[in-house]
Automatic annotation (TrEMBL):
Biological source species: Daucus carota subsp. sativus (Carrot)
InterPro entries (alphabetical): TAXIMIN_1/2
Organism ancestry: Eukaryota, Viridiplantae, Streptophyta, Embryophyta, Tracheophyta
Record protein name field: Uncharacterized protein
Domain of life: Eukaryota
Amino acid sequence: MGDRDEDCECRPLGFLLGLPFAFLALILSILGAVIWILGSIVSCVCPCCCCCAGLLNLAVALVKLPIKVLRWFTRKIPC
């Protein structure tokens, strides 16, 4: 038989508890998307800016944040 995590894929309680936090992360991801667009424009205009790479990596991490928050909550709540 499989692990306990594999047997219980659907955890609605963890999903529902994570929704408010995912909403806050969604707001941060919109901010990350704006930073990513502005950083892309700046890096196209001036490709010698090394600081833009770190800023763009941060922006991409912010865009992925809502999914990470929901996954974290659903993994922490048992079936």
